[in-house]
Specification:
By secondary structure, the protein is of the alpha/beta class. It contains eight helices and seven strands, in the order βαβαβαβαβαβαααβ. It is globular, with a radius of gyration of 18 Å. Bound molecules: NADP nicotinamide-adenine-dinucleotide phosphate.
Length: 256
């Protein structure tokens, strides 16, 4: 039997990369999905394909997690049959630029802090109270190896991912008297659109990040997130750090 039949899974940033891979991985286990991101046209195509392939239900939501009012309105107005979210995957996130902190454009800081930290807080703030009422749920957030070891030219991105870890650790304590689980999955190099966005569309520079290395794929991360979500109810996977075999941490990688 599918492991997540009739569960409702809310994914932020489901239009690309890891979020999109999670949509397919969770649908394959029978979950119904709320897919959110800014590019609704991509979500609609993914949703249609998933419904056809797996026979689950999909609701797509145009949602910019940076906008607290929009997040509040969208989540509090979810149709009744979608309101009881079982699993929240806080995935929407980005890096903008690769620059020494004292030379960087503060606009890049705003984009990262508003998306990776404030966006995650806005969404979690709206969804967790329902989980508390039902005494059931799982919040899984995308951290990073950058949240364990800061690297040069990445101060604000690293700070946001250290923050995701702190928020998750603290939320786990806030929820200690409930059956709700809180996890972070913290990858190293994953080949998605991530580096292309970090380097403002410079595809050549983005592809160099993965040169001489077999990077993780979005599907590898989705598989691990699914693993966290399908443990017996008394088991909490609090944190997973995962890298390609050729990457030891934020600094050390071996390129062939
Ligand atoms: N790739 C890596 O090497 C790596 C490593 C460690 C951690 N991560 C983390 O994994 C997560 C997913 O990254 P990815 O690699 O899958 O990148 P990606 O392929 O660029 O996908 C990012 C997703 O986030 C969404 N998003 C960005 N800003 C948003 C906003 N303001 N509101 C709503 N959705 C937003 C995008 O959708 P729209 O543009 O349609 O809104 C897209 O679906 C991020 O949190 C990232 O920090 C990635």
């Amino acid at each position: 039997m599918a492991k997540l039949e009739n569960k409702i899974v809310f994914i932020t940033g489901a239009s690309e990369g890891i979020g999109k891979a999670c949509a397919y991985a969770f649908a394959a286990e029978g979950a119904n999905l709320i897919l959110s991101a800014r590019r609704k046209n991509l979500l609609d195509d993914i949703g249609e394909n998933i419904e056809e392939k797996f026979g689950v239900k999909v609701l797509t939501l145009k949602l910019d997690v940076r906008n607290g009012d929009e997040v509040k309105a969208s989540i509090s107005n979810l149709p009744e049959q979608w309101a009881a979210v079982d699993i929240l995957i806080n995935n929407a996130g980005l890096a903008k630029g690769f620059e020494k902190m004292f030379k960087d454009d503060p606009e890049n800081w705003d984009a990262m802090i508003d998306t990776n930290l404030k966006g995650l807080l806005y969404v979690t703030r709206q969804i967790v109270p329902g989980m508390v009422k039902r005494n059931s749920g799982h919040v899984i957030s995308l951290g990073s190896t950058a949240g364990h070891m800061a690297y040069g030219n990445g101060s604000v991105y690293c700070a946001t991912k250290f923050g995701v870890r702190a928020i998750s650790d603290s939320l786990r304590i806030d929820l200690i008297d409930t059956d709700i689980r809180v996890s972070t999955v913290d990858p190293g190099m994953v080949e998605t659109d991530f580096s292309n966005i970090r380097f403002f569309g410079d595809k050549e520079r983005a592809s160099k990040v993965y040169e001489g290395i077999t990077p993780l794929s979005a599907e590898d991360i989705a598989d691990t997130i699914l693993y966290c979500a399908t443990r017996p109810p008394h088991v909490s996977i609090n944190e997973v750090i995962m890298t390609p075999v050729a990457q030891a941490n934020s600094f050390v990688a071996f390129r062939k």
